[in-house]
Amino acid sequence: MEIRDAHFPGRAPLDAYGNGGFRFANMSHRGSLLCVPSGIYGWDLNVAAEFSEEAFQKVFEERADIEVLLIGTGKDLVPLPASLKEKFREAGIIADPMSTGAAVRTYNVLLSEDRAVATALLAVD
Predict the structure, then answer these.
(1) What is the pTM of this model?
(2) CATH number for the domain including 116?
(3) How far apart (Å, rounded) are the C-alpha atoms in residues 124 and 17?
(4) I need a labelling partner for 123 at 20 to 30 A (CA). Which of 19, 49, 50, 89 fits?
(5) What is the pLDDT of residues 95-106, one digit of tens each?
């Protein structure tokens, strides 16, 4: 797994999703996103089958500032592997998989409430 060079330093609500990308902070990004307290990063994943501990390394690095991780698994909900769910539990992070659309909406609400939230979002067409 590799975090792309694309990086927005800071937190911002997500204005739109679809067509293979996202819009936020008057910018657009094609591909998946990882939104953590240190910023918004391009995420080099395309399908939930690629989820691994390594894919979420940035989340684990920033775990002290994350209580809830919303995981957008694409158009449909895809459950997390039990071993990955256990790694999040050990790190003190509530990991909640859901469709990407639901994750975007929930992230925006929790962000507006200034909650310790992060999100990992697979892009959808």
Answers:
(1) 0.93
(2) 3.40.1230.10
(3) 7
(4) 89
(5) 999 999 999 999
